[in-house]
Design a protein that fits this description.
It is built from eight helices and no strands. It is elongated, with a radius of gyration of 38 Å.
Length: 293
């Protein structure tokens, strides 16, 4: 089943919202239209949250190594002295200076030696300054890398805390609404002859170990964490497949029809029929048809 472009789906939902707003402004918005407008707004929010999660997972969680900016470069020290001379030019013969025993060094010779010593001292000072500058630049680069790593770690912690807080708020809200508006049912699954054995065992386990609160609709019955898990593990990462199949499961006439559709989905997407995530999904379907609606 091919997945549509996320941007195309978002544009479609925005078009529906625009039509609803125009009806609202003209005073022709019926209660049914208002319900559709609310559902479209929820759908837009859910898609944007999932899209944000995927983009963050790719662009931030996928980074393996710290990347140093191309503008940070170390100073290269070039030695301006040619030790061997040019290859094409012949090597000049060494100059010898003949000094007699009674001769004293001339003032020009002493001046040349002092100039040579001063040049050597200047070169040593330049090399020491260059080494200090290089060491300073290396310390600066290391400090910048440490600061970048600290920023990324803080960003990860903030995003994780935000995700956990949103999930906790949504789960608490849903549980509170279910507890206040619905009472536990004495749900007993009626197994059909053509029902797969693994599905019958999961329903029996749900009956024995979970409280089955009836759900009037599957739409809006999933927390953000549940949606991400079902999309990634049961529908090959396709949010469109998840949404379309949940809507179809919500509109079936009986739990037997839902069982047949679940069996087809398990074959299509190669579900692990012994996994807990599959049982969690079937638990939602059992709650939907607990009242026989």
């Amino acid at each position: 089943m091919s997945e549509k472009s996320p941007s195309l789906m978002i544009k479609t939902i925005l078009g529906h919202l625009q039509n609803g707003v125009e009806k609202l402004e003209s005073g022709h918005l019926s209660p049914e239209d208002m319900e559709l407008l609310v559902e479209d707004a929820k759908e837009l929010y859910e898609r944007m949250v999932i899209l944000r999660y995927k983009i963050y997972e790719t662009n931030v969680l996928g980074v393996k190594e710290a990347v140093i900016s191309a503008s940070i470069r170390q100073t290269e020290i070039e030695t301006p002295i040619d030790l061997f001379g040019s290859i094409d030019e012949p090597t000049p013969a060494p100059a010898f200076e003949v000094t007699f025993a009674n001769d004293e060094p001339s003032e020009s010779t002493i001046g040349d030696e002092e100039a040579t010593l001063e040049e050597d001292l200047f070169e040593q000072e330049d090399e020491e300054e260059a080494s200090e500058e290089e060491a300073s630049e290396e310390e600066t680069i290391e400090q910048e890398l440490i600061e970048e790593e600290t920023i990324v770690e803080n960003l990860f912690e903030e995003v994780e805390e935000e995700a956990f807080e949103e999930e906790a708020i949504e789960e608490e809200t849903i549980e509170q609404v279910v507890t206040e508006q619905a009472a536990p049912s004495s749900w007993e699954p009626e197994f059909s002859g053509d029902q797969p054995i693994w599905m019958a065992e999961m329903e029996a386990n749900i009956r024995d170990n979970r409280s089955v609160f009836p759900l009037e609709s599957l739409i809006g019955a999933f927390t953000l964490n549940e949606k991400l898990q079902f999309i990634n593990e049961l529908f090959d990462g396709s949010s469109d497949d998840f949404s379309s199949n949940v809507k179809q499961l919500d509109q079936l006439a009986s739990i037997d029809a839902a069982r047949n559709m679940i069996a087809e989905l398990a074959d299509t997407f190669s579900w692990d029929t012994e996994s807990e995530i599959v049982e969690d999904f079937i638990y939602k379907i059992c709650r939907r048809y607990a009242t026989g609606a």
